[in-house]
Design goal:
heterodimer, A: mainly alpha, MetI-like fold, B: alpha+beta, OB fold (Dihydrolipoamide Acetyltransferase, E2P), 6-stranded mixed β-sheet, 5-stranded antiparallel β-sheet, 20 strands
């Protein structure tokens, strides 16, 4: 293709593609580069970063570039374990979301057309109230004084078991994560399922497929793109999420998100925080590309 | 015993009666067509035969067994859907293998029968393609192979040629006839296209407003329509209001208002004084210069109102002295229009007394 693009088309492309590109450049590419640079520097004595060039005041500490933060990351399995745990939580959240969202998305997609928009609206309605308020609400629901905890503990007492604490447990974190991310699984699934040609199910039934066979051989394989995009939309944010484990997980259940947040706001070790962020980004990227590969493979051969 | 027997089937949707007391029996090996305009109930009837819908009353028997209570997946009946409904995530081979897999056949048997079925629809090398890589006609053939591979007792076809262009449709019609002959499976075919029904079927049931108007062979449906609806729906026909003056077993003498006497072949049950219509097909009407001598009983002067040149034939619309319009068809046997009548020309139209048909009200 060497044909000249008309000037008007080029201008239109620049006008439509330019602003988002500029936005990504300024607010994603440049900050990412800054973060990479930061990861190779020394932390400042009182937070921030140590200078790059030797300061005039010879008494001051380290300066210049270093791989110390990376060495620190690999020096202790603690961080790998936090990563692993975060992946575990993200995986569990994704599976729980999928199990809950699929039937609901199917129900919406197969209900009468005039009810569908209303049901979708109900799914996204929680977004109308603030995210933190919703998570704090769960802290109350799961708290020791809540009706839920009392009923649960009364039942446990009747069975002669120790009372359980719901709040500040991995269970509470999972509940919060699932609750927050469920709509992100429902919507892509619904968008996919809604497009299925109902004649395909008729054809399957006509050709001898019973109920479950129709699901596993027609509906499920055709919904895989929706399953993959919904899973990515849940898995990736859960991996970096720190607010939910902060509020519902207490101090014991630290995930990568909390670790990174602490490096910047608590410990004030920016280089190490940057290293953690870069590792997280790499992890997310590899998961995303794996997912994309699986999705393509699923689309090619059923 | 007939293979398929539909007995007094009624299906209502609210106040609307989609299928109104329909009785049809289809013999083994037959190519049977349900023909009618959209909304005549033919698709509803088809869905009831497949099992996707149930009659409010009446029976549907297959091999003498009542099918009510047997779900679609358990009926030995397969359907070729209007939109083909091929599974987009499966290859052609997997699509065709689907009913065999559901039937629990062994892998070697599946492979052999799939290949045989694909050979049968002349797509032997398409096993590994996906539906989106096929043309409309190829999709159609895959849908046929999938419907036939399990050798159902009955194959239902729901306007399967509707989405194809005219040329391809004609090709597929011929293929359908040959395929049906080869496999020997009974076809029940639904269409609103009368030419398709005439070309394909052994017998046709013409439906209108949920009722069966006539069940007959194509030539009898065309040549001896039982009522005005069938006459009008199948092919072209000119109709004039008439009153029976004299009814003999061999011939009828009719009075057409402001035109004169028309003689037609006799028909059972018609008596003097009956009212109805004289119905004549365009190809039965001769058109000539007014000077030409009257060669048959029914000869009337008229004027060319309009004509339609469509290549193989030219249809002339002639206005008679009483204002009635009658269509006459002339084949264009030699290059160009065979006979040059122009709009406004004085002409004579005539037809033999044993052509055309009298339909009483």
């Amino acid at each position: 293709m060497t044909r000249d693009t008309p000037r008007s088309t080029r201008a239109a492309r620049l006008l439509t593609g330019g602003p988002p590109l500029l936005f990504l450049l300024v607010f994603f590419v440049i900050p990412s580069l800054i973060m990479v640079l930061t990861s190779f520097r020394f932390p400042g004595e009182f937070g921030g970063l140590a200078p790059v060039t030797a300061p005039a005041d010879q008494a001051a500490g380290e300066y210049g570039f270093t791989t110390e933060a990376y060495a620190f990351f690999f020096s202790d399995t603690l961080y790998a374990r936090v990563f692993l745990k975060s992946f575990g939580v993200a995986l569990a959240t994704t599976l729980a979301c999928l199990l809950m969202a699929y039937p609901l998305a199917l129900l919406i997609a197969r209900s009468e057309k005039r009810f569908r928009n209303l049901m979708v609206l109900l799914v996204i309605l929680p977004f109308a109230s603030n995210f933190l308020i919703r998570v704090y609400a769960w802290a109350i629901i799961l708290g020791p004084q809540s009706a839920l905890s009392r009923v649960a503990n009364t039942l446990l007492a009747l069975l002669g078991m120790e009372p359980a604490t719901l709040l500040f447990s991995p269970f509470a974190v999972l509940v919060g994560m699932v609750y927050v991310h469920l709509p992100f699984m429902i919507l892509p699934l619904y968008t996919n399922l809604e497009k299925h040609d109902p004649a395909l199910l008729d054809a399957a039934q006509d050709l001898g497929a019973r109920g479950w066979q129709r699901f596993w051989r027609v509906t499920w394989p055709l919904s895989l793109p929706g399953v993959f995009s919904g899973s990515a939309l849940v898995f990736i944010p859960v991996l970096g999420m720190f607010a939910v484990p902060d509020i519902l997980g207490g101090t014991r259940d630290i995930l990568i998100g909390n670790l990174i947040k602490d490096q910047f706001l608590g410990t004030r070790d920016w280089p190490f925080g940057s290293v953690l962020s870069i590792m997280l980004t790499l992890a997310v990227l590899s998961v995303a590309s794996l997912t994309a590969w699986f999705a393509r493979a699923a689309g090619r051969t059923p | 015993m007939a293979l398929l027997e539909i007995r007094h089937v009624v299906r209502r949707f609210g106040d609307y009666t989609a299928v109104d007391n329909v009785s049809i029996s289809v013999e083994t090996g037959e190519f049977f067509t349900l023909l009618g305009p959209s909304g005549c109930g033919k698709t509803t009837l088809l869905r009831m035969i497949a099992g996707f819908d149930l009659p409010d009353s009446g029976q549907i028997l297959l091999d003498g067994r009542d099918m009510v209570g047997t779900p679609p997946e358990k009926r030995p009946v397969h359907t070729v859907f209007q939109t083909y409904a091929l599974f987009p995530h499966m290859t052609v081979a997997d699509n065709v293998a689907f009913p065999l897999r559901m039937g629990g056949r062994t892998q070697p048997e599946i492979r052999e029968r799939v290949q045989h079925a694909l050979d049968g629809v002349r797509l032997p090398d398409f096993a590994n393609r996906f539906p989106h890589e096929l043309s409309g006609g190829q999709k159609q053939r895959v849908a046929l192979a999938r419907g036939l591979v399990n050798r159902p007792r009955l194959l239902l076809l729901d306007e399967p040629l509707g989405a194809l262009d005219a040329k391809l449709r004609e090709e597929m019609q011929i293929e359908l006839i040959n395929l049906q002959k080869e496999v020997g499976i009974t076809f029940v075919f639904v269409t609103h296209a009368q030419d398709e029904a005439l070309a394909l079927s052994h017998r046709i049931a013409v439906m209108n407003r949920g009722r069966v108007e006539q069940i007959d062979e194509p030539s009898r449906i065309y040549g001896f329509p039982r009522n005005r609806f069938v006459a009008d729906f199948i092919g072209k026909i000119s109709m004039m209001e008439a009153r029976v003056v004299e009814a003999e077993p061999s011939r009828l003498r009719l009075e057409v208002a402001e035109l004169g006497e028309v003689v037609m072949a006799g028909r059972d049950g018609v008596k003097a004084g009956d009212r109805g219509v004289v119905a004549i097909r365009p190809e039965q009407v001769r058109i000539s210069r007014p000077a030409a001598p009257a060669e048959s009983e029914n000869h009337f002067p008229g004027r060319v109102h309009d004509f339609l040149y469509v290549g193989d034939v030219t249809t002339y619309i002639v206005e008679l002295s009483n204002g009635a319009r009658i269509e006459a068809l002339l084949p264009n046997a030699s290059p160009g229009r065979a006979t040059f009548f122009e709009v406004g020309d004085e002409v004579g139209v005539s037809w033999r007394h044993d052509t055309g048909i009298f339909l009483d009200d």
